[in-house]
Amino acid sequence: MKRFIALVAATTTALAAVAIAPAQTGDVLIDDDAHPNVGAFLLPRDDGSLRIICSGSLASPRVFLTAGHCAQAAYDRGFTRTYVTFDPYFGLNADHKIVSTHYPGTIINNPAYHVPYTNDTAIILLDKPVRNIQPVTIAPVGFLDALRDAGTIDETVYTNVGYGSAEQVVVPGTGPTFAFDGIRKWTTSGFYSLDPAFIHLNQNLKQGYSGTGYGDSGGPTFVDTANGPVQISVVSTGDVALYATSVNTRIDTTEVQDWLGPYLELR
Predict the structure, then answer these.
(1) 155 and 183: one domain?
(2) Which of 70, 172, 186, 245 ranks highest by number of CB atoms within 10 Å?
(3) Burial bucket for residue 213 (CB in 10 Å: 0-12, 13-18, 19+)
(4) Which pLDDT value is given to residue 121?
(5) How far apart (Å, rounded) are the C-alpha atoms in residues 94 and 97?
(6) How far apart (Å, rounded) are the C-alpha atoms in residues 163 and 113?
(7) CB 237 within 8 A of CB 244
């Protein structure tokens, strides 16, 4: 997550009325419980403790939606099973007490995924359904195309939520680093460009926007509609310094929803 913000049950028809919120600027906002259906993809360390590697969202009671390159990173480390948390302060709660709420599941990559970001979607199929959190609503197929065709895609506000790093910090004697704190945050971005597979978002601080960083991969970007927010994409990549643009894999496509749909039916 960067500073200075301006930030699923599938349906079959495009949502015509999109609520265009005014862009907001200021420091990145701590999410707390604003987006309880956004969680973190965890992997064990050598000592057995858990660390965040990516973000994601609860797409159904048993499906945690994330990025394909995050799943591949887990596979490369020898993991096919892992955990998800929805704690807004992973490792510490508001009273700075240890928190250990996490859900086990099996990592399943999109079979069409290719390095680095082709079909960059994956899920963690949770062993048991999460009953106390309302899943996200996934945008219907063609949702972003409809915004473009209606001429509203440029004015739409794109809300990013995740556990990723903030601004670059220079540590004397070590050099630049992007610190993680285990806290779920949100930012807003502006529109940059759209293609069949990706939406590119503007996170230029000088233009009053912000966006995503390391660890936000797999996390959701939302658009507000008259019927509530819908998830349009998962975070894939961006410029190395986190200054200019983010690149997010669209989930409002037939390819993604045909693959994802059968998992969403599992109870």
Answers:
(1) yes
(2) 70
(3) buried
(4) 98
(5) 8
(6) 23
(7) no
207 in the same domain as 76: no
Structurally, the chain folds into a number of domains equal to 2
Domain coverage including residue 129: 36-135+256-264
Amino acid letter at 217?
A: S
Which residues lie below 8 Å from residue 222, measured CB to CB, with a gap of 6+? 136, 158, 159, 160, 161, 229, 230, 231, 232
Residue 24 lies in a domain: no
Note the pLDDT tens digit of each residue in 162-219. Answer: 998 765 555 677 666 656 788 899 999 999 999 999 999 998 878 888 888 888 999 9
| HEC-encoded secondary structure of 90-113 | CCCCCCCCCCCCCEEEEEEECCCC
Instruction: Tell me if the bond preceding 116 is cis, omega within 30° of 0.
Output: yes
pLDDT at 101: 82
Beta carbons within 8 Å of 113's beta carbon, 6+ residues apart: 68, 69, 71, 72, 119, 120, 121, 122
Name the residue with tokens 């200054």.
243
Instruction: Look up tokens 């219907």; give the residue.
Output: 140
